[in-house]
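Problem: given the chain below (194 residues), write out its structure.
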Amino acid sequence: MTIEEILEYINSDRIEDMTEEMHECFMRQSQAAIKQTMELNTKYHTPEEIVRIMSELTGEEVDESFSLFPPFYTDFGRNIHIGKNVFINSGCSFQDQGGIYIGDDTLIGHRVVLATLDHDLNPYDRHLLCAPIHIGNRVWIGAGAIITRGVTIGDGAVIAAGAVVTKDVEENTIVGGVPAKVIKTLDVEKFKEV
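Solution.
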């Protein structure tokens, strides 16, 4: 069983019926992610070294425009997809088994949590539920925000600090609160005039 086969299985929204072999591969990747994030978080790294470590962690070439202030935490790593000119501030936690897709020019504040997994509400069967998080281009996510599984955030949106986002966010919209609600729609044409 390869990590690519696991990703194909997970990305088809099937996680509850994993075979023992799949689960073992899944756990090996989680242990590898712990090792890589420990390396990232326990000593100083140049910006170039951070790009290299994140490329190894995600299994994809991360653009040299990427910037991250450690510490950074993830429990899988291989289902994070990062666009160009992305900034991730310190203390963020990505639970990426379900897939995290981050668009270009996105800013992610301190201690943001992106969680693609959840559990069924049935107390006798708490099987895993899994769905990707899609973050558009030019999104700003404020400090301490939490984005839950299956959420899509449109281009140009702003997530206020401390918000808990459980539903999709339209493009160029500001949301805040627990659970997050629309605060305002941005007039982006006004910004283009400046």
